[in-house]
Amino acid sequence: MQYKKFYISDSIKTSVGQKRVFFIAFLATMAIFLAIAEHMIPKPLPWMRIGLANAITLYAFTIIKKREVFLIVLSRVVATSLLIGSFMSLGFLLSISGAVSSFILMSILYSYCRKVFSLVGISILGAVTSNLVQLLLVNAVFVRSSISYYFIPMVLLLALAGGILSGLFGRFLSENL
Amino acid sequence: MKRFKPGDYAVMVLVIAVATFLLYQYVFSSSHGTEVQVTSQGFQRAFSFNEDRIVEVEGPLGITSVIIDDGEVWVSDSPCREKICIKMGKKRRVGEQVVCVPNRVIVEVKGERSNVDGVTR
């Protein structure tokens, strides 16, 4: 019988495959830890975040396959929301849509534009995408006015700062881990 | 994957440029006034920006001339000593004022305020 294997390239029964699964779980745990630690830091504005968990995603791009990275992103968002207590709430829907859209853009960029962008540039673009998608969703679905367009410059600048920080952290991880 | 690559700098510059451009647009071209309210002792009237005119207002010291021209308003002549109201220049955005304290004249630009006053969460 033929199996189509989705997430794990090697069979889980071999020790190599097991190590791979454990490594993916380890990366997901690190991402969850960073996301929750960041959530604990008091911030003046709720959407003002660095996105340190994104550094793990970036680091994962450099060593494992795209679908495994997607698994890390999904489990990070779901587990973080479960631990914080916002599962299936508005913030969860926003954060999962932002995370998935920025993952799609970053994986395309990492596959095809690696000559042009380093991890920092990919991280900035991912952060900008995530923030803009969340803002446009809020505007299109929940607010239905043009007020939140006034936040676009601020959101762009915050994404730039957070993207540079998490990009540098991801590069540090990929060089030293 | 060592250092920064040219695309990184391009992205940073692009993001900053877009943010600055949008900020500039919101701050400087959003709220053009529609009328001018001139207040003096026992006198208050609003004049539209659509027609150009000279408004002469009487105060305790004498007559202050206010000129409305081409979407801008300014004080052209005043009997006061310091002439601060003349130096305040031309105004056109909502909420801007020209005030002549010695002659008790206030000129304020009115209009629909499109800026955000407050946000509740």
Give your account of this protein's structure:
The complex is a heterodimer of chains A (177) and B (121). By secondary structure, chain A is mostly helical. Chain A has one domain: Arp2/3 complex 21 kDa subunit ARPC3 (Orthogonal Bundle). Chain A is built from 6 helices and no strands. In chain A, helix 2 packs antiparallel against helix 3 and helix 2 crosses helix 6 (152-176). Chain A is globular, with a radius of gyration of 17 Å. Chain A starts with 14 loop residues before the first helix and ends with a helix. Chain B is α+β, with helices and mostly antiparallel strands and 121 residues long. Chain B folds into 2 domains: 1-30; 35-110, mini-chromosome maintenance (MCM) complex, domain 2. Chain B is 23% helix and 34% strand. Chain B is built from 2 helices and 7 strands. In chain B, the strands form 2 sheets. A 4-stranded antiparallel beta sheet of chain B has the order 2-1-7-6. A 3-stranded antiparallel beta sheet of chain B has the order 3-4-5, with no helix packed on it. In chain B, strand 6 (97-100) and strand 7 form a beta hairpin. Chain A binds chain B through residues 46, 62, 113, 115-121, 124-125, 128, 147, 150, 152-154, 156-157, 159-160, 164, 171, 174-175, and chain B through 1-8, 10-12, 15-16, 18-20, 22-23, 26, 116, 119, 121.
